[in-house]
Here is the input.
Amino acid sequence: MRLLDERQLARAPPFCRLDPHQLRRVRDLAQARNAAIGTVVFDEGQPALRFHLILSGHVRLVRMTAEGEQIIVLHVAAGQIFGLGAPLGRATRQETAITADDCQLLSWPTALWQVFSDDYASFAKETMRSLGARADEMSNRIVELSTKLVEQRIACALLRMIGQSGRKVAGGIEIGFPISRQNIADMTGTTLHTVSRVLSAWEKRGLILSTRCHVVVSDPHGMVMIASGAARPDQPATAARRSARKAASSIPYSAQASITV
Amino acid sequence: MRLLDERQLARAPPFCRLDPHQLRRVRDLAQARNAAIGTVVFDEGQPALRFHLILSGHVRLVRMTAEGEQIIVLHVAAGQIFGLGAPLGRATRQETAITADDCQLLSWPTALWQVFSDDYASFAKETMRSLGARADEMSNRIVELSTKLVEQRIACALLRMIGQSGRKVAGGIEIGFPISRQNIADMTGTTLHTVSRVLSAWEKRGLILSTRCHVVVSDPHGMVMIASGAARPDQPATAARRSARKAASSIPYSAQASITV
DNA sequence: CGAAGGTTTGAACAACCTCAACCAATGTGG
DNA sequence: CCACATTGGTTGAGGTTGTTCAAACCTTCG
Here is the structure.
């Protein structure tokens, strides 16, 4: 079991540069846990005592509003670290972490994050890289939510998921964990009704194949078209939504203002 | 000039624990720059060669879409660092940085980030903390964009700005830098027309005072009411928008699932 | 003073949410 | 193994929010 874990640990980006001896040390300090689908790993508001690594499976980071709505902020895939609140200066969890499928998890006390960072340069580097990637993803989500229509946002969400956790299957690329219409709605800021309508339409057009909690994208290119706002049936191919004020987009700012730094 | 910079530097969170000698070293490695309002500090797509600190003023981090729309991702206030793409593993800028008012800026080559982090523990800690705070802010924005009505989102944006850069004036709390309706629209994913209508209505109700590029919140508490979705004139005080499915929100997940970690 | 940028406001329309009802798949207990 | 509950999915009708279009106004600044 430990040996097995070590071998998987060696494939996780934050630890893949460590030698066998270092891996053993890291593994021995970890607490292992198998969590069935739907298990809550930690909950919004709790003290952030440990950080986690996914050996296999997927975890959703979720926030809930006072009105009882869920918003899926991020998906974390195998090989990745999550729950780094403490090193980022948060004493308590801001999100709830729920397994999206059956998971093997390791966790360490937050104090070890500093130790690992000091001892293994690649660990520090890799966690920073991962924080950066997530900041990018959130930033992209903000742009999408601000500018895109629901159909485009759903397309973006599917593309993001097949990019992060897609696996090739017969009819296309499948999202590698169970995902319901409600889940997709929670990612895109819409309702399951709208998601259902959109996916049904896409299935008729041959863009996807879908069964219960299960989506295969059979025409990724067509999906990109939809996500980008091209392939709009009626509209003239102009702005997807808000009036592209001035439309001076093509000239970067730098061409106008003197940039020095 | 250098001396003046050093004194201001000593007040910036990332450097406030340094002794005078260290401060001088940091200052001597920096490039100083005064940037008038509307100056582009760096542009989306450029290589990330330096990181920056605001001595005074405010900087907007902006992203543009293919259709020419701007989205304001974050505001950065005096004393804060920005442009940390490189340590986060990004070779090129993902956002454009534009000064929101007249700014005094310092910048350093990205290579020094590692050096400062190694040499000054408080610097490393503080930059992590700041990354965490921004991740929180983005996460909050995602929740707002996903669940709140336009009026609530605008209220949230105003509250966030007075929280970060508000100053007390005669009639209430003023946002500490110039801000147009269009800017607010770019923050909330709406149009300047809608922002204008909402602010006009608020001004009539005595919640704010506003002139060109200039907003004073005179009733912060009322603003919080609006932001949270209370104070809705017609609706019964239930869910602000999407149907609060199951509304099991009050019981934290942890009460249902065994949480161990 | 004219131009440019910011703001206001009305009217029409589109997107999408809400309500409502129903169906299909899966799981459960007798 | 079947009745039944549960969960996820589908689909139509109607209503609300907020965008789009259009036009005018005001302020600031060269």
User: Anything to note?
Assistant: Residues 148-255 of chain B form a domain with the Arc Repressor Mutant, subunit A fold (CATH 1.10.10.10). Chain B touches chain A through 78 residues (CB under 8 Å).
